[in-house]
Amino acid sequence: FKNLNIPGNQFAFRFYAITDAEVSVEEIDSESLLVFPNPSCDGIFQFSLEDKGKFEIEIFSLSGKLVYSENGISNSGKLNIDTTLENGIYFSRISCGNKIYNNKLIVQRF
Length: 110
Hints:
Blueprint lengths: L1 E5 L2 E5 L12 E3 L4 E4 L7 E6 L3 E9 L4 E10 L2 E5 L5 E9 L2 E9 L3
Parallel strand pairs: 3-10
Antiparallel strand pairs: 1-2, 4-5, 5-8, 6-7, 6-9, 9-10
């Protein structure tokens, strides 16, 4: 701890040194991810991915609010996501290991 004395106040600070820390996330361009139908008329989307394995999908509203989330999805190249989203524009983020796929989704119910 490092103490800092100011008349009438006393502050204590803790300093940390981080060395040799490596964290990386590979953001993949949207060409590696196909979404259809987009726009969707019923809130159902099919994601076609190059990677296979366990995935996490998150869908956010334009305001940044998380409106849909699902973890531990097994993928064989295609993900079918059935949402109850209202009409609007959303952003999806699909994570697999150190890869992140981002895409814009449109729901246009009739």
